[in-house]
Q: What sequence folds into this?
């Protein structure tokens, strides 16, 4: 393989691995959704609030999906997740692809 072809492949790999990012408007939409659906204003959302918030953001989540998110991100074992946890969930690659229309 020629050196020129190898460097083209390296460039292609770095282009493909470029992480998609949300716009400032999308980040604000996520924050707004969290605050809107934190109905008891305790700065954390429970199962029902999480499900509604995810659907409002356009994610077709099932009960099992929401329960898994809670299990994986409820670090304090309260049955709720904080905004930081929620933000981490929606900033995963698959969620960003949905938000940016890349799927």
A:
């Amino acid at each position: 393989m020629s050196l020129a072809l190898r460097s083209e492949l390296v460039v292609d790999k770095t282009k493909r691995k470029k992480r998609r990012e949300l716009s400032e408007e999308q980040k604000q939409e996520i924050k707004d959704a969290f605050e809107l659906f934190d109905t008891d204003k305790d700065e954390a959302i429970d199962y029902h609030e999480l499900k509604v918030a995810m659907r409002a953001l356009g994610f077709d989540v099932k009960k099992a999906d929401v329960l898994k998110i809670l299990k994986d991100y409820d670090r304090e074992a309260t049955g709720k997740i904080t905004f930081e946890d929620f933000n981490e969930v929606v900033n995963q690659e698959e969620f960003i692809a949905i938000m940016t229309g890349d799927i």
